[in-house]
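Our preliminary data section would be incomplete without showing what the modeling component actually yields. Below, a chain of 324 amino acids is followed by its predicted structure, encoded as tokens that our downstream tools consume directly.
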Amino acid sequence: MPYDIDPRLLRAFTAVADELHFTRAAARLYVAQQALSRDIRRLERELGATLFVRSTRRVALTADGERLLPYARRVLTAQDELTAAFRPVPERPLLVDVGVPIGTAHGVLEAARGRVPDSCELVARFHSGLTGAAAEVAAGRLDVSFGRVAALPAGVRAGLDHQPVRLEPMAVLLRDDHPLAARPAVPLAELAGETLYAAAGNPQTAEWTDLAERLFAGRGIAMAEPFPEIEGSQEFVRVVRKQGWSVLASVEFIEVPGMVLRPIVDPVPLSPISMVWRRGLRHPGLEALRAAARELGERHAWSALPGSAWWLPEADARVMGVRG
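Predicted structure:
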């Protein structure tokens, strides 16, 4: 009795046992009928038993063939399970929320795509803010997002990991005929008496509205009245132009026809951007994103403070590791 039967021979045997026809069994295995017959004869020699009764009109299992069949099926099932357990599994796509197709998050995503093989897919999602996206990340419906971690509810934040990415200077979007539009930069004090839109009324971007409220407090800057959630950059442009708003923004922002983007100075208000993902997530795309964020941060000094005149809430400074 042999101690090492080639599973290929057992696969040939079960195919013939199933089909009871050598031609159909050979077609099922994508082999020549002559090769299949040779494998069956070899198996019969190794077992010392006749497995099939053959005639010009029919093929039938012998008693030994009937006895072998359940054993052969169990061996082949075990082999298939073993192969599947160690077969490389293609990574599922990593879903990455970048907000808009411009700016810090989008730049990190594009850089990360250059770090992964073609088999690893990083798919962009365009949510409107971290408040909404973080809940999706925690629930497993989204993998990665970017934004202001300090403002997240404690219950949501507990299930997330994060990596500080950038202290992004803030700016103001003004109509091109606005008195401050001619300046290369706008001192924060010059915005006193202005009303700025900062996504009030959009529950998905509560972290941005909260940051604006903290910045405006005591400076005579008013918050535009709450407005329903605006989805998509095209709709944002349409609404902003129609409403005639000035807008609190970041220094990297979508273009709005008829409006200009001006950095805010004296002090420079900072928008803290972290990369956020579900705790315990393992994916080569995540490692590529983290590496890309570090590389871009070092290259462009994203964590550097803009001199002595800057503004950042204390809680955000702790999250971002800011000293001083």
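The mean pLDDT is 90. The first helix runs from residue 7 to 19. Preliminary results of this kind motivate Aim 1 of the renewal.
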